[in-house]
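Handout, tutorial session.
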Amino acid sequence: MTYIVNDKCIMCKYTDCVEVCPVDCFYEGENMLVIHPDECIDCGVCEPECPPEAILPDSEPEAQPWLKLNADMSEIWPNIGQKIDAMPDADAKVDEAGKFEKYFSDKPGQGA
């Protein structure tokens, strides 16, 4: 089992999860984070730290569509190992519908 990040992270990018990760398996895109599935040790400490509840175990049915995106993007985005500021207006965008279609970017984040 591994954990994934889904579209609830897009345009929010809270990094409370990054701060508690013991193996630094998070990678930063321009407007979201992903988890590298081969680096995640399945400890689960990140899941309750995510304000928009964007982190799920891959055993959840709604996590399945996000496995490939997390695996693919974690190979090209820079690793992030410390907390940074959330995106502007993150609180207002937490529950916005259709964020992947509207905002997803495969560009790397600030750490690139």
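The second record follows below. Compare its token runs with those of the first.
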Amino acid sequence: MKTKEMRLLSTGELKTKLEDAQHELMNLRFQVVTGQLTDTSRLKITRREIATFETMLRERELSINSEGEK
């Protein structure tokens, strides 16, 4: 999913996608340990997706807080 597409999602959808990505990362880690994962690049991609989701959620949180202070 591209960043532009992620920005169009609502906050609730972002949280859901973040949880899904975290579960996927956990499953990928298990697959690496058991030797079942052949495409290890998915680990890096999933970690970056998680970071992007968390960044967007934090940006929205800060923008809400700054609007309330005005």
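Points raised in discussion: The chain has a mean pLDDT of 93.
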